[in-house]
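Example (one chain per record):
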Amino acid sequence: MAEPTAPRDDLDLPVRLGARPPRRVVSLVPSLTEAVAVTAPGLLVGATAWCSHPAELSVTRIGGTKNPDVPGILALEPDLVLANDEENRRPDLDALRAAGVPVWVTDIRTLEDAFRSLDRLLTVACGLPRPDWLDEAEAAWRDIGPANGPSANVPSTDVPGANGPVTDGLVTDGPVADGAQAVAPVRAIVPIWRRPWMVLGRDTFAGDLLRRLGLRLVHAEHPERYPAIPLPELLACGAELVVLPDEPYRFTAEDGPEAFPGVPVALVSGRHLTWYGPSLVEAPAVLRHAIDHPFVQG
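Predicted structure:
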């Protein structure tokens, strides 16, 4: 009898799972930790020190996303390790595979990627029923309306390179349908680090979410995904809004906005901007509220 074909992860790598669904899972990604823990409490036996949700999560901590304790992971005898191509180092994952541990790697650049990847990870890799929260998240993003706040709170200007109007929070390439509300996209920058200043560039999950909420990222066409941009260049780029998340760098009202005097600033939840999991249910409303209520410092 032919051996069944091994399922493949987001990198199209075969993952040789056991004959029965996994019972001991280790997650190296905070958002995936939350996704599994909410869907199947008790399935996780290990997670990184950065895995903060759910708040009641009680599992063995196995280091960070970039420096996991590989021997510690192996000591947990997992039958599956969950990882992400951007967040985790390939040498660590290769070491786990070499020790005989199946590793499932996600690769997520857009909201559609997230929904598709989460469904496969939970149902195929973990052998779980599709969770209700995933349906709720898809519905929440499908039902987002046109962006209200930034264009109302930020001076209206022409946006160089804009392709067309925004309908239901999306920049469109053609005319707006009858009865739809068109909202001019807001030219925004999204710093994710300082010392040096780094921003969202091309092809990022967070950038895709903000695009759907009516923002046009200044650096969306940059060759790098997370380019380092000197502050004088950021101040001169003509941004109408600065979006400051609280992770990976913890921007706060006291740390970050002062660098952009006179420019509206929106402080946003990094978990709702960058995590793909149950937080996606609340993310449209949480992010929209923050974007709709910027403040100006200086």
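Caption: Confidence is low (pLDDT under 50) at residues 149-180.
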